[in-house]
Design brief:
The complex is a heterodimer of chains A (about 290) and B (about 350). With about 290 residues, chain A is mainly α. Chain A is built from twelve helices and no strands. In chain A, about 75% of the residues lie in helices and about 0% in strands. In chain B, β7, α5 and β8 form a beta-alpha-beta unit. With about 350 residues, chain B is of the alpha+beta class. Chain B starts with 5 loop residues before the first strand and ends with a strand. In chain B, α2 runs parallel beside α4 and α3 crosses α4. Chain B contains eight helices and 21 strands. Classes of the chains: A mainly alpha (about 290), B alpha+beta (about 350). Chain A: Keywords: Cell membrane, Membrane, Transmembrane, Transmembrane helix, Transport.
């Protein structure tokens, strides 16, 4: 068989194999993405055509005080989740990796279990557990603060509690990534370090931590992106309240699009959040890489 | 403290119900190069790791010099180990890899620098100090691993199959370097290998391990000339010794006559002090290099494979009864492939083993 003929065959096969993905990607991802970009320059309602208004939506957004409140709440939530969840996942991963065989699989499954639950179930569980009147966690809160707290109706408690729920829900996946990272560190290195006179603490800081750093950086970046996209938990637990204390950017976008029928403005919000996530995560990833190289 | 050797007394190790080391005594004198050799699974690496403190000792006592270190931490034993995988810290430069133990001990910078540079000088690593392990070749990585051990100036160096990840040519070269290093440092070294050529060339003393016991220990040529059992005889020497089943068919004044099983026309007169009974079943061991081609009576070998190595050639074949036999020829191009050759062992070079595999002298 001549070489060009074989190449044509390979090309045809590769096209056939990627075609289903390409079709779905173009119809359900690429086309909507471009539509949103186009929509953000119009005053279109949710359904139907709109007038081209240039950058007016973006100008309006920059003067929207609610947008800054939302953005601030997003950053507050990132602060409450990204580093804490990574630290907790690392501690759990270090503990779990000391277990052997089936015991390790069992404990890992237990930690991973919440991750398989849909968000509606997660929020339902926690809404009940933290219920002001009947919640089984209220005695605990009462023991600490002196009185029961309606956590999702209290402006100071609402974001930290949503953070707790989110960490409980998503932590298993981070544990899994970090366990995989820990397993990649050859046991010889710990033996060599033990012979070199390293204490367990030094073994962690001088062997585990630097070698696990690429995975830790990955977890931090994935978490940052995921937590900036916060919507479901807020929508289901507090609906942005009280006093907009849990109002986040996607919440605002949702309300503009599906409740106030401002398709163009909502698209602009989505675009700004998208650019914000890209810039912040690229920036963070670069910073983490520099940190790891040192 | 003149004695800084390594002394093991009644060492045992079990993993659960499996006994890996079943009672080992050994004395390695200060400055000796000792080699543990044996087939895989014989416990040689486990024994080394017990000396290093990386495995707990189930029973017995390990002493380094005058100190009982059986239950000491690895770092307090005064040993340094070179791993088969090198176990270099991939995130640290060559310099920092070698300086690692000194940094942990918080030694002054000048001392660290002096020791690392000295070791790098010995091992020709000076130009590579700033590189990461991934940028080095296998042989260079191996040298960094050795350098990391040298920097600690231990009483005892432990090597766990350090050359088995290198290609054949580099292995020979590193073998020589290790021998030179041992002379230069004069430290006690314990080396684990499954390669009996490495063992023969490097060792002052070889310990042949099998089944959790030391089968025999001694100078390399003593093991070669005078193996104490069939296992050692077969393990030391390459290609390995030929074993032929035989029966004692007669007693002489200072020996016995042994007749090959299944080939009553071939018998040998063997000088022995401790003569087995008439009719006893024994095994005769003959090294390939002690079988000579002859025109007269002897073993008739049908050669089916000839390995011509240039300087020597090994002729692989079978006897009439089907027993495999290897004999060595000096030089090459004998063209023996497919022919029947008659070979006879050098007188006095036949080893006799009883049915249990113990040597009869």
């Amino acid at each position: 068989m001549s070489i060009p003929k074989r190449r044509r065959r390979e090309l045809r096969a590769s096209f056939l194999m990627t075609a289903p993905f390409l079709f779905i990607f173009i119809v359900f991802f690429l086309y909507p993405t471009f539509s949103v970009i186009a929509l953000s320059f119009t005053d279109a309602p949710l359904i139907g055509e709109g007038q081209w208004i240039g950058l007016d939506n973006y100008a309006k957004l920059l003067n929207d005080r609610l947008f800054y409140t939302s953005l601030w709440n997003n950053l507050y939530f990132v602060l409450l989740t990204v580093i804490p969840t990574t630290v907790i996942a690392l501690l759990i991963a270090l503990a779990v990796s000391r277990l052997k065989g089936r015991m390790q699989a069992l404990v890992l499954t237990l930690f991973f279990l919440p991750y398989v639950l849909p968000v509606s179930v997660v929020t339902m569980i926690w809404a009940w557990m933290l219920d002001f009147q009947f919640g089984i966690l209220q005695p605990l809160i009462a023991a600490i603060t002196g009185k029961p707290v309606p956590v999702f109706k209290n402006p100071y408690w609402v974001m930290p509690m949503i953070a707790v729920v989110t960490i409980w829900w998503t932590n298993g996946f981070n544990v899994l990534l970090l366990i995989a990272g820990l397993r990649n560190i050859p046991p010889d290195l710990y033996e060599a370090a033990a012979l070199d006179g390293a204490t367990p603490w030094q073994r962690f800081w001088r062997v585990t931590w630097p070698l696990l750093w690429p995975i830790t950086a990955l977890v931090l970046t994935l978490q940052l992106i995921l937590q900036l996209k916060l919507f479901d938990q807020v929508y289901l637990l507090s609906n942005g309240g009280p006093f907009n204390q849990s109002y986040v950017v996607l919440m605002q976008m949702y309300r503009e699009a599906f409740q106030l029928n401002n398709g163009g403005y909502a698209s602009a919000i989505a675009m700004v959040l998208f650019l914000f996530i890209v810039i912040v995560s690229v920036l963070q990833f670069q910073l983490l890489r520099i940190g790891g190289r040192k | 403290m003149k004695d800084a050797g390594v002394h093991l007394r009644g060492i045992k190790k079990s993993f659960g119900a499996i006994d890996v080391i079943r009672g080992v005594d050994m004395d390695i004198q200060r400055g000796q190069f000792a080699v543990f050799v044996g087939p895989s699974g014989c416990g040689k690496s486990t024994l080394l790791r017990m000396i290093a403190g990386l495995e707990d000792t189930s029973d017995g006592q390990i002493a380094i010099g005058d100190r009982d270190v059986t239950h000491e931490d690895p770092a307090d034993r005064g040993v340094a180990m070179v791993f088969q995988s090198y176990a270099l810290y991939p995130h640290l430069s060559v310099y920092e890899n070698m300086a690692f133990s000194l940094r942990l001990a918080k030694r002054p910078k000048a001392e660290v620098d002096e020791k690392v540079r000295e070791a790098a000088g010995i091992l020709q690593l000076v130009e590579h100090l700033d590189k990461k392990p991934a940028q080095l070749s296998g042989g260079q990585r191996q040298r960094v691993a050795i350098g990391r051990a040298i920097v600690r100036a231990p009483e005892v160096f432990l090597f766990d199959e350090p050359l088995s990840n290198l290609d054949a040519e580099l292995r020979v070269q590193m073998r020589l370097e290790l021998a030179r290093l041992h002379k230069a440092l004069g430290a006690t070294m314990i080396y684990v290998t499954h390669d009996q050529v490495e063992a023969m060339t490097l060792a002052d003393t070889i310990f042949v391990l099998q089944g959790g016991y030391v089968q025999q220990s001694g100078a390399p040529l003593d093991l070669y000339d005078d193996p104490s059992n069939r296992f050692v005889a077969g393990f030391i020497g390459s290609p390995s010794m030929n074993f032929l089943d035989a029966t004692v068919s007669g007693h002489g004044d200072n020996g016995v006559t042994a007749t090959l099983t299944g080939q009553p026309d071939i018998s040998f007169d063997i000088p022995l002090v401790d003569k087995p009974a008439h009719g006893a079943r024994i095994a005769l061991g003959m090294r390939p290099e002690h079988l000579q081609v002859t025109e007269g009576q002897g073993l008739r070998v049908t050669v089916d494979v000839a390995e011509e190595l240039g300087g020597v050639s090994y002729q692989h074949g079978t006897l009439d009864g089907g027993e495999p036999v290897i004999f060595q020829q000096t030089g090459a191009r004998h063209g023996m492939h497919g022919t029947i050759q008659t070979v006879t062992p050098d007188p006095g070079r036949i080893f006799v083993f009883d049915a249990e595999g113990d040597r009869i002298r």
